[in-house]
Amino acid sequence: MTTEAALSGIVVLDLTQIMAGPFCTMVLADMGANVIKVEKPNGGDDNRRMGPPFIKDWSAGFLALNRNKRSLVLDLRSESGQAVFKRLVADVDVVVENFRPGVMGRLGLGYETLAEIKPTLVYCSVSGFGNTGPDAAKGGFDLVAQGVSGLMSITGHPEMPPAKVGVPITDLSAGLLAANGILCAYIHALKTGQGQQVDTSLMEAGIAYTVWESSVYFSHGEIPGPLGSAHRVSAPYQALRTSDGYLNIGAATQPTWEQLCRAIGLEVLIEDPRFLMPGDRKARQDELAALLEETFATDTTANWLKMLEEAGVVAGPIYNMEQVYKDPQVLARKMLVDLEDSDLGTIHNIGIPVKLSATPGQIRTRAPMLGEHSAEVLLERGFNKAEVVELVEAGTVVENLGPGTRS
């Protein structure tokens, strides 16, 4: 087994902040890419001050999204900062940004300009609505994208106020799509020597998730609504009440339906004409759920789960976050990774969800202090000490200032 990471040798200039872009570059960094987080002076990534605090103004969310990266503070609004950035681009593989479309162009750092410096460059843009179209210039946050993509129209329970998906799903999925696009473009560049721009958005990421709902609309013109925990086309496939809570039941196919009925002593339902075929069960899903809950309400969630597992029925609990990180399977799959740091002590991290057998990802370092690696990055990219000192004195580059600075 090689100890070299899968993306070792790939250098990424990461101009992103908040959620979607940093999640993209975190995925690359976890797999070994050398990610240089280029932050603005006067505070850096706004996520350093968002969400629950961890230390001083350094948020827990920032730590979660920016591990395995180094921080370079560079004033891109200055001509000298733009010159430094262009010099860095000549020796990197990927640039990732999530400004509104047009911002990088106005700074003289758009794709066309940078591609002249590095023809093989992969340049990724993540925005609210994409780089083209009538809404390209609009700002976009996850909540807005969930509404525009249709996700909020299908989330929650019928006849209730609009609800969003509990996690910032369009941010995170846009980040994953961006990472996938970057790797596709990078492979193409390796084969052909041709770089390109990767362009994705929160809106498109949200729409991409509406597989069932879009299919229903395309097929029948039906406009799907929210179903709570129920499935769009199958039943029973939802959360059902027990004597002390809920459990999830997945009996979407005919064999799994019959298996469930036998396991809970309701064999009579197998031949019941109301629930004979999958379409029948879906058409009467509320009636069916009520019948099943009459049985499930007679015992606890834990007892039912044990019984169903022994019978081979697909079912599961509904965990809160504390329960998630105590689950033996979650721990066995290393989805909780503790990192010991001399500055911050023990940092809990979400583990790496994709396991590679020969070149596994690794959580190597905590998220950086603002400007922690400014001099280090410039020196290793070909700047000499005198140039670095001059850039720092001019305010073009900032080192070790802002949230998280050592006192």
Give an overview in words.
The chain is 37% helix and 15% strand. It has helices at 20-30, 60-65, 79-89, 103-106, 111-117, 142-148, 169-192, 202-208, 211-220, 254-263, 278-283, 285-296, 301-311, 321-324, 328-332, 374-380, 385-394; strands spanning 11-14, 34-39, 53-55, 58-59, 69-74, 94-97, 122-127, 196-201, 237-241, 246-250, 315-316, 336-341, 345-350, 397-398. Mean pLDDT is 95; it is low at 402-407. The protein is built from 17 helices and 14 strands. The protein has 2 domains: 11-208 and 331-398, 3-Layer(aba) Sandwich (Rossmann fold), CATH 3.40.50; 237-318, formyl-coa transferase, domain 3, CATH 3.30.1540.10. The strands form 4 sheets. It has a 7-stranded mixed beta sheet with strand order 8-7-6-1-2-5-14, sandwiched between helices. The protein has a 3-stranded antiparallel beta sheet with strand order 9-10-11, with helices on one face. A two-stranded antiparallel sheet has the order 3-4. 36% of the residues are buried. By secondary structure, it is an alpha/beta fold. Helix 1 packs across helix 7, helix 6 crosses helix 8 and helix 7 (169-192) packs across helix 8 (202-208).
